[in-house]
Design brief:
alpha+beta, globular, disordered N terminus
């Protein structure tokens, strides 16, 4: 089965960034709680947080829901079921009926499942012990349940067949919960898909939690044309599907009209040559039909059907920020295949899924190296339109003696295996080239050392340089180096990313470059580069450019805002949703793009991350009370995750409820004690509550954890100054200025303290530095005039 997001204990911990981003625990870009840090000339500095304006916009009711569209009955009436295909398509049906798709989900049956429960088995996982047995003729799992005690549970459905089977257990409100306990049919043993993590009741990722709710996490990829039908008012589901399992119509679309037309014309002498009810999909449409269940993505509509564009229904996770992918595009988390494949030279050359995989059985079209040599043997390509491929001798090329030993198969080096869910090995579809130099420089795995674990990267690098020489200095190496450097904010990154965007022809990597460039969005040259990509041909690039421009687009009257506003009418929904989110503070929710965004909310509102996103939406639209309710509910749904508690604290502070904000932040810090940002926010909240000593202690901890946290150093300087600790204050402000050299408020704060100490020459230097950054700084100009000449 697909274990989408289940390896993360928290949905916020490493959740993929959707078109409309979910608040994350990293960085300051989306935090709405920041110190103003104004310091009056010749007066003691004061410590302040950004208070709400005197006049807030009136509280707004929730926007009207999106149009319901077609009913379940109308949609499902167009489907005929896989069994209706057998008569005319016997060969294809035979290939499909025992495939992983056909067995993706099914009712539990004695014939298929009894071997997992008889004889009875008791097994340990972590510190827990569970049992699988038959009681009164019913298959039973005895394990820790929602009641926080071991109780018997009756599985009713099964997910998958090989290399593991998981079971679904009925829960409250129309839910089905996916057991963390799985059966390995090869070893004939039970195991925990989380290994020894020992998840417990109350965690988002425990099998009884929302992270394992089938309706939200598994169902859409294990069934045909699923409709989740979540009701937020009752927190319940009425989930339905056209067919259990991945049937013929999952890929071909609804076929009842086709069946009716064929029956109508059966045996007719004048039968038309073409069935008007059947649409022939293009190769890219076929790729986009595979993609939804083979991609790490977020839902925009919950109603994809074959023939649609992937980007009209999903937002794709890409290897830009975060560590979901390695900088060269190799999978790191459970990322599936689509993103990696888009990043590959294979996709760029025109190869598509069905060229390598027989679509009905899903098996590869040829065994071993024969599959790759279909094109790479130097013969004319089998796929029309593909360029000629140079001949490759696998033995000479791989420097391994035969295909029968590890390293002798093409996939060993170019499609390395990663095992997920303890027993499910999957091949990386990025077709990357092993590069031990990247391992030495950035810790990026290479296939040589994945296999030769007794050797180091220097040994591997020496061999590949001897075998391939200058060929190792390929553009993909430079690209991976630039991506890795940008993730660490290397000073050369703006130039490197501009070079990447000028040279790169692959749209996925262009999106990565645009996404990483957001870190330097305030540099004019970077802004111009990203603005140019708003008109890119690929919707993934356009949507990523919108996300990168979000901080500028939110500023009233900005050029970026006007440019993003044009994309509210983009032909691709993922771009419209990204634009709607970027302009959310002023978005007209009844507009088409506004309705697209609300539909996205409806699809994600059954998970804590979706609630947090809606909390941000209402907060930015001037409605903190409604935002607080969304964040509060997120803390209830995922009490062991720190980000919801932090976001709630931000809103509570804006509402003037400082003591509650402090309590919420202390909860966040119990869960994430090493998060410098949370200590910083706690310092601001404690200042609001009048606890000066606590304020200083929290800010000191923030800069201890993150010595480059400029706002924390700045506010710490103001707090020291309020206690007449002038030397400490000036030192803290010096550190703040070094961390954020483009901020005028920092040298100005130093100037006011120096003036109070009558250190006039040093004050002049600080004011000169202030005016060099902001020549129109009114207080600094006034102070400069009062000081007069030296």
């Amino acid at each position: 089965m697909s274990s989408r997001r289940k390896k993360n204990k928290s949905p916020q911990a490493s959740q993929p960034r959707p078109s409309a981003p979910v608040p994350s625990s990293g960085g300051n870009r989306r935090w709405r709680w920041a110190a103003l840090g104004a310091v009056a000339l010749a007066l003691a500095g004061y410590f302040a947080v950004n208070r709400p304006p005197a006049q807030r916009p009136p509280a707004q009711p929730a926007p009207a829901g999106v149009s319901p569209g077609e009913t379940d009955e109308q949609v499902f009436a167009t489907y005929a079921g896989s069994s209706s295909c057998r008569e005319c398509h016997a060969e294809q049906f035979k290939l499909w009926e025992h495939s992983h798709h056909a067995l993706a989900e099914r009712p539990v049956s004695a014939a298929l499942d009894r071997a997992a429960f008889e004889p009875a088995r008791q097994f340990k996982h972590g510190t827990q012990t569970s049992e699988a047995l038959t009681t009164n003729g019913h298959l039973t799992l005895v394990t820790l349940g929602a009641e926080n005690r071991k109780v018997p549970h009756r599985p009713d459905r099964a997910l998958g067949a090989d290399p593991l089977v998981q079971y679904l257990i009925a829960g409250r409100g129309g839910r089905w919960q996916t057991s963390e306990l799985a059966f390995d049919p090869h070893r004939k043993e039970w195991f925990d898909v989380y290994g020894d993590e020992d998840r417990v009741t109350g965690e988002w990722g425990h099998w009884t939690g929302r992270g394992m709710t089938w309706n939200s996490m598994c169902a859409s990829c294990h069934n045909t044309r699923l409709r989740k039908n979540y009701d937020p008012a009752t927190d319940s589901y009425r989930t339905r599907a056209a067919e259990v399992a991945v049937g013929c119509e999952s890929c071909h679309g609804p076929m009842r009209a086709h069946n009716d037309w064929q029956r109508k014309h059966a045996g007719a002498a004048s039968k038309p040559a073409t069935d008007p009810t059947v649409t022939r999909f293009s190769r890219d449409q076929m790729l986009h039909t595979c993609a939804p269940c083979h991609a790490r993505r977020s839902e925009l509509t919950g109603d994809f059907k074959p023939g649609d564009s992937f980007f009209d229904h999903f937002s794709l996770t890409i290897p830009d920020e975060g560590d979901v992918y390695y900088p060269d595009g190799q999978v790191r988390d459970e990322d599936y295949e689509f993103t990696s494949f888009l990043s590959s030279r294979m996709h760029a050359a025109g190869v598509r899924c069905v060229d390598c995989h027989e679509p009905h059985s899903s098996k590869t079209r040829a065994p071993g190296n024969l599959l790759c040599l279909t094109c790479h043997a130097g013969a004319p390509p089998t796929v029309p339109g593909l360029p000629s491929i140079p001949k490759i001798d696998p033995i000479a090329h791989s420097h391994h003696r035969s295909e029968t030993e590890p390293g002798g198969r093409c996939v060993d080096c170019h499609m390395p295996l990663t095992t997920y869910m303890q027993r499910h090995p999957r091949r990386d579809h990025g077709f990357t080239i092993p590069d031990p130099l990247l391992t030495k420089q950035f810790g990026i795995p290479n296939a040589c050392n994945r296999c030769h674990q007794d050797k180091n990267a220097d040994w591997s690098l020496g061999n590949v340089e001897q075998w391939y020489g200058d060929k190792m200095n390929r553009p993909s190496r430079s690209r991976a180096q630039w991506v890795a450097m940008a993730r660490t904010n290397a000073p050369s990154s703006p130039t490197n990313l501009e070079r990447l965007l000028q040279a790169e022809t692959n749209s996925l990597w262009r999106a990565v470059g645009v996404g990483l460039a957001r870190r330097w969005i305030n540099e004019p040259a970077v802004t111009e580069t990203i603005l140019r990509h708003l008109t890119a041909a690929d919707p993934l690039v356009r949507a990523t450019a919108v996300q990168s421009l979000e901080p500028l687009a939110a500023q009233p009257g900005s050029r970026a805002g006007a440019a993003v506003k044009n994309l509210l009418r983009d032909k691709s929904r993922n771009v419209r949703v990204a634009a709607a989110w970027a302009l959310r503070a002023s978005l007209e929710t009844n507009s088409p793009a506004g309705q697209d965004l609300l539909r996205h909310f409806a699809q994600t509102g059954d998970q804590p991350g979706g609630l947090m996103q809606q909390g941000t939406f209402y907060f930015d639209r001037g409605n903190p009370p409604v935002a607080a309710e969304f964040y509060r509910r997120a803390t209830e749904w995922d009490p062991r995750s720190a980000p919801p508690h932090h976001e709630l604290a931000v809103v509570l502070s804006q509402m003037g409820r400082a003591e509650e904000a402090v309590a919420s932040l202390r909860t966040a810090l119990k869960l994430a004690p090493n998060e410098a940002e949370y200590h910083y926010k706690l310092g601001l909240a404690l200042n609001e509550a009048g606890d000066t000593a606590g304020t200083i202690a929290a800010l000191e901890q923030a800069v201890k954890l993150d010595p480059g946290h400029a706002p924390a150093w700045y506010n710490l300087g103001l707090a020291y100054n309020a206690q007449n600790r002038s030397g400490d204050a000036l030192g803290a402000l010096q550190r703040a200025g070094a961390a954020e050299p483009t901020s005028a408020r920092i040298p100005y704060a130093r100037a006011t303290i120096l003036l109070r100490l009558n250190r006039r020459d040093e004050a002049r230097q600080a004011l000169r530095a202030t005016l060099a950054i902001d020549p129109n700084h009114p207080q600094a100009r006034s102070a400069w005039q009062e000081l007069g000449p030296n």
